Every structure is written in C-alpha cells, then in structure tokens.
Amino acid sequence: MRKTFSNIIEKISEDDKIIFLTGDLGFNAFENLQEKMKDRFINTGVAEQNMIGMAAGMASKGFKVFCYSIAPFITFRCLEQIRIDVCFHKLPVFIVGNGGGYGYGIMGATHHALEDIACMSSLPNMTCYVPSFIEDVGASINEMMRNDTPAYLRLGLGKNNPGEQEMYKSINTIFLSHDAEVTIVALGPVINNAIHAIENKGLKNKINLFSITRIPIDNFDDGLIQSIVKTGKLLIIEEHVERGGIAESISINLMKRNIQVKQFKSLCALGYPNELYGDQNYHQVQSGMDSENIQKIITDWIN
Amino acid sequence: MIPENITNLQGKLRLKLIDLYYRANAGHIGCSLSCIDLLIASLINNKKPQDSFILSKGHAAASLYVCLNHLGEISDDELTTFYKNGTKLPAHPSANKFFGIPFALGSLGHGLPISTGIAKAYRLQQNKDSISYILMSDGETNEGTTWEATHFAVKHQLDNLIVIIDKNGLQGFGSIDDILGDTASEEKWRIIGFEVLNVDGHNIEEISNGINHFINSKNGKPKVLIANTVKGKGISFMENKMEWHYLPTTESLYQQAIEEISNFYHA
Contact B110/A44, CB-based, under 8 Å? Predict the structure, then answer.
C-alpha cells in the first residue's frame, strides 16, 4: 500500500497547501515526493514529537500536513502531541503509520503496532482509516482531505478487492450471499486470510463478509446488523489487541440493540504468546488469525 | 479592593493578577509574576496583528488572561469567571475559545515545536512580515522536544522565530541548577546556533530593545531572549520562593501584596 500511497500523494501534492513530513523514513518509496514537492517535503529527523507539534503549527496557518513514519513511532511516541496539539484543535494533520499490526514482522516487537487503533480512535475529533485493499487507500485519502480534520491512516500490505466495488464507507460489504450462515467482519489487510479461507473451501455462498475501513464505525445498518441477526454467527478478525479494537465496538453496538448471537469469536492480536518472533504470517498463526484457523472455525460452525 | 490610581501597566496588571488569584483561591502566582513584564513587552507592546504569539508555560495562564483583558479580548465580566465551574478561563489555557489563545497549552514542551512549525509555515508562504513568538519557562527547557525543535529551527534558518525564556531559576520541585543543571544556559542555545541575548526580564525597555534587535536581525539564526527574572517579582514574601508556584494567598497577605505593588509601581 505504501507505493500506492506515495503515488496518490504525488498526484494531489500539486495543491500547494499540502506539506509532507517524514520522520527520517521513506527510502525507496518517497523519492518521487521529495523531487516533486521540493520545500514542502521535509525530513524532520528522528524526532516524532517535534514533527507532530510543528505539523499542528503549520496546519494552524492553513496547511494540510501529512506526518509519516512506521506505525508504532508515529502513534505511541508522540501520543500527547497528537492528543493536544492536533486533536484538541481539530487541525488537518494526517498521521500515516506504515506496517500496522505485525506488518514489520521479523523486525521485532518494537516495530509492531498492536494498540495503535485503541490509542488513536479514543482521541477527540480523530478518524482512523484502515484500508483493507489497495483500492481503499485512495478512497481514504480523499475522505481525509475532504473532512479536513485529524486522521490516522494505518497502512499494511494490501491486495486488490475481490468483491464488488461500492461507495467507500465505514463498513463495506465484500461478499454477500442469500444462504449465508456466518457473518465475518475484518479490519485491514488481514481480511485476505478470511478471503483465502472462504475461496479455498468454496464457502462463498455460506458467508457474508464485511470489511471495516473507518473508525468510529457509523453505518451498522447498511447490512451488517441484518446479517448478524440473520446468521446468528459472528466472527471478528483484527490484527490489533482486543481492547479498543473493532470487536469491542461491534459488541457494544449489539448490546445496545439487545441483539444476541448464537456463536461469537473474536480473533485478535495476542501479542507474543510463546515469546518468540517471526514474520507477519508467523505472528498471525500464533494469534489464530491465519486462514487455516479461520477455515476451521467456519466449518465447525456450519456443520 | 485594588487601588485605581496605579496607571503604570506593570503595576496595574500585577494588581489584577493578585486580585484574580486571591478571589479564585488559586496557586501559580509566582510564575505569573515572573513573566508578566515579558508579556507586556512582547504580546502587548511588540506583537503585530500578522504575528503569532504562544504562551507555552501554560501554568501562567492568568498573566495571559490579564494581558488579553487589557487588549480588550477578554472582558472584565469574563475575567471574573477565572477558575469557576463553567469558565472559559481554566488554570491552563484551553483550546478554541479566544483568538489570542490559538493553542491549549499546559503540558510543558509543546509550545516550541508548534511555534517552530508556525515560523516554517510563514517561510513556505513567502511571508516575510510575520514573527512567531513563544514565551516559555526555564524548567520547560528540560523537555526533549525543546531540543528537537531548536535543531530544526537552526537547520531551517528560522530567524522569524523569537523564543523568550522566563528564567526565574526555580522549577516544580527545586532549583533549576539542582535538578538537571542549567538547560536554559546561554552557551547551550548559542552552540546549537541561536542568536542569544540576555536581558533583565523585569525591565520593559530592555526586553523591548532585545525584541526589536531580533526583529531586525535577518541573519538566518533563530532567536532566544534569555530573560533573567524573579519568581514572585514585586511581592517581597513571594520573591524567589518555590512554594509560591503553588500556594493561594490569604486575606492579610493579599492586603500586604496590594500595598507593596502599589508602593513599588506607583507611577
């Protein structure tokens, strides 16, 4: 998604109100921006807190400011600057974190971001965007620019959307079937594990699959609630800790509506259960959000 | 009651401050008195409409409030709500309430990055007429963000950034020398690449001269005015006393304070 992101920024950066700040990252990815944006592309050094504070100052003078680093550094390291300087003042500062979840794999735990959505989505005036597919990146950026308010964009390794393209929303329908028995909701590119599981076993006519790409979630009634009521079986997948993630948000919404389900499972990032490290897929397996486990859950529920 | 015959601004605003704190039964008097003259010289006397000004030592909010009251942005009625439930004037400045308070500040070390961003924004807009002012405390220079921002400002040659440090030598729980050493020292700021001036932070003319020198000094170096001040300045029993960072005043001390200020700033 990073290359897609870079190409889109290159296109929209003709608008001289756009500034791009990076915390000393972007080798082999942002050279195009550096060349095109000239003095509006600034490497602010290994100093994330200052980068966010400065972005707030620049935004207060009429700029829209993108702040880029890898997901953990651009969120946790400068959380207070995002909370006070950006969010309290509702400024158009767009926090972009690459490699959300276990995205940086074998780089190790310092480079993973498993609690970023919880931190960012709990801040006032903040909208989180988590593209599931490559097509979602452009749609997210369009919305961020249009809204002109604080945003967090979590990028990962994406594929193309295999479902029907529709208008970009908070909850998006990927597969819908008349005979569906299970509802699956996923956040971010980990949805591809569900798609692989479904397609591998030819289960497409048994599943309603939804992606969540924007938080706070606001369109529960565009099909998700109906599907949950109809199937009574709900599987939620997110490469993020359970606390502060989408499983919590959806559960609270269901409680408020007094909706009960027969089967419920939340697959989330469990951290480092065996205290060992590996690539992104290794950690997904450790947390049970790999396609094999997803497939097992679905078939158990259907039979 | 505060005497009405004190026309000297340093005395007049000090009286307002003391009265405000007394009625609110609130602390932070000492740190407001150490920077009130800096606010008069920068915000009231020198800041032009096209400039930006940030009080980064948010705990001295009351000194900012009385200055904005003097400038007509905060009414007398509004000022009486200081510290009360339902106020727009809490102990540290809040967001989105007054044009003269563009940012919520109070967590130390946030102001300098913001002011540096504003100075850089002026540059990108080819705006040569605007100055980005920031008033910060010496204790605040303990924060790492201060040093992140200074390096950026120097590298980007932001000579439109004027930092004013209220150097009263006392921070939250001790003297600046005893805690981390002097993080607001002239040498440190100069070696990073700032143009540095030392002034008496209670002498309006000296402060103004320093600021004017900086405004005209287009040498590519960001500026820092190290203002040597006294915590609690103007009230004998508060001067250089750390406890007046926190203590509210009593009826008898309030009367003594009013009397001392009236006598000292009688012009």
Answer: no
